Amino acid sequence: MRIGRITQTAWNRSVRRQLHTKRSECLYELSPLENCSGISAGGADAFVWAGGTVCGDSPDAGFYAVMHAAGELAARGVCPTGVSVTVLASPEAEEDVFRDAAAAADEACARIGAQVTAVHGEVLPAVSGIVVTADAAGAVEAAESADAAGAAGSVGNVSAAGRNSAAALSGVQNVQGKPGDGWEILLCGYAGLEGTLRIVDEAGEELGTRFVASFLEQTRALSDQLVTPRQIAAAFPAGSSCPVVRHIGSGGVFAALWDLAEISGIGFEIDMRQIPLRQETVEICEYYRLNPYQLTSAGSYLILTDHAAEVADALAGAGARAVRLGTARAQNARVISSGEETRYLDRPAPDELVRWLAERQSGSR
């Protein structure tokens, strides 16, 4: 099989057909595009959780695993409270990898206002390098959980305290109707920034032969530009309608745009020139011949809303920058323009960072 996330076709063919058991307490419909789970138990709080997995040799793998999990949760309007971490290492690894992964996970939790609740470490012969998985969980207030269980097809909303306060957590329906023609698509954060930071972590010494030390230090400092769950929470109360939010993870902004269109049932017209990229990302991607638009981007979000100005202002007030990419359309066409050139968005390709790591491991670079 190809590296990276399993395709929608493969998931529907080989995964969905195996899953038959259902319970009414579960909040989300099964989907190849869904990475969140949630349960509601009558008058008790509802709990929502999501996972993220990162591999490689970087000591910061734990940081990015937490950011992936927290980002998926934040896209549902829930700020994480606790994070459970699993670290898998090869028999050749040293004990330091567990120390580094735990410290990096704790650093990410300090950034997002959560706590590491458990760390499990294991050495396995099937593992090459380091694999870190994080599961982030948050609570939905008890007063809302009963509504949430019965409101399949809505998107949550976050209060100033960071807890979900809308009567919905599953699906993409707006509280006043389905996203439609004329809604705008925003991007909060920077495309490919997470992947850029991880490449510098993995290949800093090699990059030092091409770039001056100050450039690499400047790039590492961009970690503080990753958008946190509490910042993205500002997007939800703005305007009279709840936005649809998609965390940009594996596959980069192109994969996230595809997923957003799939879950929302829309087409769109996007100006690729408006997708925000750091110059550091451009230069490092050029050096390794990577496509920054297909580079993992945890800590960045797509937002589909009919109140773009209000959402952008609310995010700016929270210290997060959002730019307009384009407009949703009722037809299915997913159009990307770049000046005079216009094309249609392809199905998601394997993430560029995963491909880069695989090629380095095989010695082809």
UniProtKB/TrEMBL annotation:
It comes from the Bacteria. Pfam families: AIRS_C. Residues 221-332 form the PurM-like C-terminal domain. This is PurM-like C-terminal domain-containing protein. It comes from Ruminococcus turbiniformis.
